[in-house]
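User: Could you go from structure to sequence for me? I need the amino acid at each position, not a summary. Structure tokens:
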């Protein structure tokens, strides 16, 4: 079975699974929804434009890349495109009637030609990214900034003219959904960053990462945001109380109550002498009042390093099954693990201790301990943030290792 016939079978199977009616009646909305459904199941982002090309809604002369085909097959519960193709060939063989015919050199020649053409098609598909290292060397992917502060437009420069791929995207950060689709003839693309942080942007061709470029949006001291979507509300200096504790001032509390959204405090200025492999962190936090937006009274502490982050969520005891802790490359779900240590009441001051030694993150609250191993190298400290779903307060914080210390207490 040739590529197009196999692809048509694959599309028919997907259409049967979706039950959305004839695909020639699908509009842009259906392809956007299909993109999200495929991502939810496979973890791979096939853009709606790519899917429209596959279904013939957009004229495109090249065949789909092998990564696109693999993803479609995985959506249908096959391990790969090759596995799907073998299954179709097996089904076809089992249904094929047994014909008797005279031997002839002509059929053999035809079969040989079909095999050759099939192999050629496969070769063309899988060699769109024949040498990623060479393509990467010529890509020249770089990020630059248009200003300081927030929001901040980042300009990505690149040369993708030599890349033959079904899909070219710039992934803006760790979030697979934060992507910009680009064309091989483009030289630049821009993205607006609304939050501070250290982001590793990636240039991706057919799900192959060719090059990375770091984007570091710093703050000038502590800053606050009310986390509305799609753009946060920025709190000015009069909205924060930064003397004996870090908290919302009366004007900041009014803004938060009006928006009824979580509040974050951010501090992003690199401390390169503090390694994520060796530190002890201590802080005291609480809610200023009981006007939290959610029943679980959610809060989190994020220690952000150049290669990843430690994210420690805190909720009332009854909600620990709904949270997930992140220790660099190790995600620990409360649905599958006992995270009861992180179930606390923040109506009173709570002291939180977080440490990292020998690739183990340890969290201590009161007399309870939680230890979580991780494998990746964390790098150096680039920032810290707190998030509260109500009006939270930070009494102090201190972070130190064998070489350096960094703290805020009486004056934030």
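Assistant: Here is the amino acid at each position, in order:
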């Amino acid at each position: 079975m040739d590529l197009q016939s196999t692809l048509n079978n694959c599309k028919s199977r997907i259409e049967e699974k979706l039950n959305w009616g004839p695909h020639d009646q699908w509009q842009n909305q259906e392809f956007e929804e299909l993109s999200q459904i495929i991502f939810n199941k496979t973890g791979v982002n096939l853009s709606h434009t790519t899917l429209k090309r596959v279904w013939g809604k957009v004229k495109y002369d090249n065949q789909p890349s092998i990564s696109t085909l693999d993803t479609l097959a995985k959506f249908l519960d096959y391990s790969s495109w090759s596995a799907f193709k073998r299954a179709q060939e097996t089904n076809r063989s089992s249904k094929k009637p047994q014909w008797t015919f005279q031997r002839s050199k002509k059929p053999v020649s035809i079969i040989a030609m079909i095999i050759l053409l099939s192999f050629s098609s496969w070769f063309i598909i899988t060699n769109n990214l024949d040498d990623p290292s060479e393509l990467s060397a010529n890509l020249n992917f770089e990020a630059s900034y248009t200003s300081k502060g927030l929001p901040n437009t980042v300009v990505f420069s690149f040369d993708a003219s030599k890349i033959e791929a079904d899909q070219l995207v710039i992934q803006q950060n760790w979030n697979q959904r934060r992507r910009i689709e680009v064309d091989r003839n483009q030289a630049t693309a821009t993205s607006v960053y609304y939050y501070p942080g250290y982001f590793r942007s990636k240039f991706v061709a057919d799900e192959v990462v060719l090059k990375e470029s770091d984007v570091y949006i710093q703050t000038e001291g502590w800053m606050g945001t009310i986390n509305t979507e799609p753009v946060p509300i920025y709190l000015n200096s009069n909205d924060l109380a930064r003397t004996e504790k870090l908290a919302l001032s009366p004007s900041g509390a009014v803004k938060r109550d009006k928006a009824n959204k979580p509040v974050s405090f951010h501090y992003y200025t690199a401390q390169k002498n503090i390694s994520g492999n060796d530190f002890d962190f201590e802080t005291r936090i609480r809610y200023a009042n009981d006007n939290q937006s959610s029943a679980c009274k959610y809060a989190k502490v994020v220690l952000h390093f150049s290669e990843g982050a430690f994210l420690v969520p805190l909720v009332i005891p009854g909600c620990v099954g709904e949270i997930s802790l992140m220790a660099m490359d190790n995600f620990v779900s409360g649905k599958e693990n006992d995270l009861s240590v992180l179930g606390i009441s923040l109506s009173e001051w709570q002291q939180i201790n977080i440490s990292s030694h020998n690739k183990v993150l340890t969290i201590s609250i009161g007399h309870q301990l939680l230890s979580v191993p991780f494998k990746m190298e964390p790098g150096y400290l680039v920032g810290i943030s707190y998030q509260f779903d109500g009006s939270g307060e930070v009494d102090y914080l201190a972070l130190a290792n064998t070489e350096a210390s960094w703290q805020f207490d009486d004056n934030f």
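One structural detail worth keeping in mind: The chain has three domains: 3-126, 132-217, 223-408.
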